[in-house]
Amino acid sequence: MYNKMGIILILIISFLAGCGQASPNEKFDKVGLLVPDTINDQVWGTKGYKGLLKIQSELNVDVFYKEGMNNELAVKQAVEEFAEKGVDLIFGHGNEYQPFFRALHEEYPDIHFVFFNGDAKGDNVTSLNFKSHAMGFFAGMVAAHMSNSDRIGIIAAFEWQPEVEGFYQGAKFENPDINVKIHYTQSWGDEKIAFQYLDELMNEQVDVVYPAGDGYNVPVIKRLKDNGLYAIGYISDQADLGQQTVLTSTVQHVDLLYLLVAERFQNGELESGNLSFDFDEGVIKLGKFSPLVDKEYQEQIQSHIETYKQTGKLPNE
């Protein structure tokens, strides 16, 4: 009797110990990536592809990707093809995948769908959101600190980008007299409109520009360089475009975030719904500083970042 009761007790304890613990996805071995444009843009698409390769090398899984996935029919066909290959986890590399995945996720309950900057609906859908207000704030501080004309500019894609308001607030915190000009292209990649706004900013004696759109930031920075003006890089560390031009960059490590998400999925820990990531997860940072930014000020910014990571409070709070 004692032995039977002991065995039962052990089984109960073992069961309770397992409650609340995520079950690892032991069969997780295939990942897919959908890119709206190309993996060769050296900015957003390239970072997504690098994230896919990082998952492949770190987790030893097979990976697949498709470019030009920017309409419902193309996405539907791609997801069907991935499903036939046995893909378990699909990254839609942008916020445009929200409506597509909402329409498809019930049809593929064994696939977990991930996209950016939206509102995820469904037990197998996750939205990844960079908390980019703070990175914009610190970049705005640097821009205002380095401006000689007290005029700086932002060429952003959309009004909802948190880094835009962050940049404005950071610049005003650094220099209350700074004049911040803001333009929106209503597109991530409309280079023509971005150049029109850049010409306006240069005519107004703006000497630091934050091109917060991944499809036009590189050509804008190159034109700023040609005119002897300053830039704040966007998405990638763009110091290689000219350390005398790029004061620093607001870097979003999409590759590290993708690996983090895939690891959570593999361990059975990836939550559905909307997830946010910031400096403290290591997926957001400021890039390399230009040697024109004095060392003492660089250290001051880094100190502010560390305080933010520990307390969640920006210097103006």
Summarize the helices and strands and which ones pair or pack.
Elements: H1 2-18, E1 30-34, H2 44-59, E2 62-66, H3 72-85, E3 89-92, H4 97-104, E4 112-116, E5 125-130, H5 133-146, E6 151-156, H6 162-174, E7 179-184, H7 191-203, E8 208-212, H8 217-226, E9 230-235, E10 246-252, H9 254-266, E11 273-277, E12 284-286, H10 295-311
Parallel strand pairs: 1-2, 1-3, 3-4, 4-5, 5-11, 6-7, 6-8, 8-9, 9-10
Antiparallel strand pairs: 10-12
Please give a handful of descriptors for the protein shown:
single chain, 317 residues, alpha/beta, 2 domains, six-stranded parallel sheet
Describe this structure in words.
This protein is of the alpha/beta class and 317 residues long. It folds into 2 domains: 30-130 and 255-281, 3-Layer(aba) Sandwich (Rossmann fold); 133-252 and 287-311, Rossmann fold. It contains 10 helices and 12 strands. Strands 2-1-3-4-5-11 form a 6-stranded parallel sheet, with helices on both faces. α4 (97-104) links the parallel β3 and β4 (112-116). α2 (44-59) packs parallel to α9 (254-266) and α5 (133-146) packs parallel to α6. The longest helix has 17 residues, at 2-18. It starts with a helix and ends in a 6-residue tail after the last helix. Residues 4-22 have low confidence and may be disordered.
